[in-house]
Amino acid sequence: TDSRVELSVDVARTPALSDVQRERALERLVHRLVDGVVTVVASEHRSQLRNREAATATLVALLDEALRP
Asked: Per-residue pLDDT for 2 more than 90?
């Protein structure tokens, strides 16, 4: 079975970000966005749960870096 995990966040439309945060993230993640959506893939582990945790950690780190002033 495939344990690959793909997580996506619609940065352009999420209500979780303020307008300032959204603009900052869109500007800094421009090379990773497709139609305003950033996607992270994890497949390094045999367990889907471990891949989900890895993808979540990667996505959190990516957004954290993009949102820093």
From this structure: no
